[in-house]
Amino acid sequence: MTIASQAANVVIPHFVEKAPLERYVGPARPTLVGMSREELAVALGTIGVPLSQRRMRVQQLWHGIYVSGATRFDVITSFPKDLRAALEDRFTVARPEVMAEQVSVDGTRKWLLRLPGEGEGPHEVECVYIPEPGRGTLCLSSQVGCTLTCTFCHTGTQRLVRNLTAGEIVGQVLVARDRLGDWPGRRTDLLPTLPHGGVPTDSGRFVTNIVMMGMGEPLYNFDAVRDALLVAADNEGIAISKRKITVSTSGVVPNIARIGSEIGVMLAVSLHAVRNDLRDQLVPLNRKYPIEVLLAACRAYPGLTNARRITFEYVMLKGVNDSASDAKALVKLLKGIPAKINLIPFNPWPGTSFECSDWDSIERFSEAIFHAGYSAPVRTPRGRDILAACGQLKSATEKLSVRERMALRAMVMTE
Ligand code: SAH
Ligand code: SF4
Questions:
Q1: Which ligand is in closest contact with the Cα of 128?
Q2: Does residue 316 sit in helix, strand or coil?
Q3: Which amino acid residue places its CA nearest to atom 1 of ligand 1?
């Protein structure tokens, strides 16, 4: 299907204007969401749980938060009443506050989340759920904004406001499961009947995969991302397999190996160009860590095998990086690295001067790579109508004006 014919199907989505959908407990009491088991044990110690009981209580708490989806302590019935009350008094299981939910015509959902500010006003980030037959992928943000300034990325135009905490990263998973009714015995009828949006996956779960591909550069917030993903992968909790979790980086070389050694999840690298002069322009971080240095880090990635390949992301920009010789050079560059290449049609945003490559060029590019023996799927743009596609996320604090939004819709529809 061509991008043009997809665009013809785009209808103006239902915008849910900013209004809190859910109010969780305020920030005065710290949330336990995102804490490691050791941190939970310490928290329990502060309310007088004896050392001999802490291990068991941590297990019960973990189960309550991550398996049952408790939003209050009084539903954790394995706890005695006085313990529930003591916890309620000092802590919360609060997630980020949901300010708005948008549903794309293709079933993609985007949540605008409010996070407490540090002295300033509150911050906002976005989180996107992409349902497909057999799986549901959650795209998480790691920072409010981004310090990097990739020229084709909308998030890159927003200055960094702050790093998210581990709790705010795990909190996005909990919010998605709350809104999707993805907890045992609490499936709701929230999901309208959309192409793939109304059906859970084969496993019965709505969220089966996680990608750190929302706002921010995950490797500039490494510790919080690591702690959050270890919670999400924990077998006794959310239990998303490490093979179904991917961290995407624009190429922060010193932290690449740590994704493998400290988290053990899959790596995606935003390559986007095969020559340093062009990558310097598209991904300015390339001036610090040029292509050869980046690829050396990829070759040394812990646990790299043919069964555990690195995904190289390549955004298709018309007349910029989409020629036959680019495809040839890409194959040559990745020689010897167990790799998949993910071609991403450029998603437009107001004010950008880039255009998406036309469909024929994308297909030719994909075929050239495929013939060289690589898998080269083209990532179907999802949720473009609600600005939820790759690189379109931006905090509502710098949200689009009505005019910009209209311009964007026109751009998407006439493409
Ligand atoms: N900061 C990380 C992860 C978030 S961006 C990174 O750069 O890898 C997730 C992916 O979307 C990256 O590959 C990024 O290059 C790509 N992307 C950014 N803007 C885009 C756009 N407008 N259209 C398509 N892909 C885009
Ligand atoms: Fe930041 Fe990634 Fe966007 Fe670059 S592509 S500006 S690293 S979010």
A1: 1
A2: strand
A3: 217
